[in-house]
Design brief:
Layout lengths: L1 H27 L6 H12 L12 H49 L4 E4 L3 H12 L4 E5 L2 H9 L4 E3 L5 H6 L7 E4 L4 H14 L4 E6 L2 H9 L4 E4 H14 L1 H12 L3 E7 L9 E2 H4 L1 H5 L2 E7 L2 E3 L7 E2 L4 E7 H4 L9
Parallel strand pairs: 1-2, 1-4, 2-3, 4-5, 5-6
Antiparallel strand pairs: 7-12, 8-11, 9-10, 9-12
Helix pairs in contact: 1-2, 1-3, 9-10
Length: 331
Amino acid sequence: MEPIRHALIAVSLLLVVIVIGTVGFWYLEEGITTYLDALYLTICTITTVGYGDITPHTSHGKLFATVLIISGVGITLYVLIEIMESVLEGRLSKAFGIAKVRRGVAKMKNHKIICGGGRTGTVIADEFRNDGLEFVVIEHEPEVAKGLRRKNLPVVEGDATKDEVLIEAGVERASGLVSTLPSDCSNLLLCITAKEINNNLELVARASSEEAAKRLYSIGVKKAIIVEEIGGRRLARSLTKPAIVDFLEFATKSGETSLESLKVERGAKIANKRVKELKIKEKIGAIIIAILRDEKVISNIGPEDEIREGDTVVVIGNKESLNKLEELEFS
C-alpha cells in the first residue's frame, strides 16, 4: 500500500500544478482567450516541449512560465519515477518472492503440503509453524495467495490437482499432504494425483459426508475429516462438558503442556514391553494416556498394559519432556 500512496500523492501534485498553471496563464496572458489555450500552454511548459503558436508575451507571464517550468518539470519527473517505482516494486517483489519460495521448496525434504489456503488451510499452516514443521501451501486464487505471502507463508500459486503444481511444491519428496479444497471431487482428484506421484505420501483430506470419506479411504487416504461434524461435536461439548474442551485446548495449544503421538515401528526397542518397564514418567516426565491399536482406542492405561508393534502411543507432557521422546526409540 505504501508505493500506491506515494504514487497518488505524486499524481495529485501534478494535477495541482496543471490547475495552477492553467488559471495563472488565463489571468496573466492577454493573448489567452480560452481555458483550452491556457491548459495547452501549461502542458507545453511543464513537459518542456517548447512553445509553438502560443507563447507568453507579458513580463508577468514570462516570470510565471519560468517558475512553472522549474516546479512543473521537477514534479512531472517525480510523478513518473513514483509510478514506475510502484509498478516495478510490486512486480519485482512478487517475482523475487516466488523465486525465493521455489529455492526454499527445492531444498525441502519430508515436508508437509497444504492444498488450499483458505480459513482451514491458514489454521493448519499456523499449527505447522508452531510445531516447527517445514511446509508449503498451494493456493489457486491470486488474492488469497497474496494474503498468505504477506504472512510470510511459503506459497505455490496454481491448481493443486495439476501434476506440475504438485511437483513444484515438492510432492515427490514430501511426507504428508493435507487437502482442504472446497469440493469432494477436487479433494478426491488431488489425492489420486498425489498418490500417483508419491505412493508413500500420507494423505489427510477434508470430506463433506460419510460417503465422500469412504471414497477417500478407498484410494489410500489416511484420514478423512468431516470438518462440520467435528465442529458440531466441539460446540456441543463446549456447552455440556466445557472443562474437558478447555483442557484439550490447553493441552494442544499451551507452550507448557502438549500432546504428542508416536507410531511404534517394526523392530522398535519399546515394542512388546509393558508400560511399567519403560518408565516413561521417570525418564522424561511424560505420561501415556492412550494407545491406538487396529482403529481402536485403549484408554485408562495401566502399568501392565503392553505396547506392541504398529501401535500409536499418545503421550502428554511439557514441551521439554516430549522433545526427549526419541530417547525411547519408537523406531
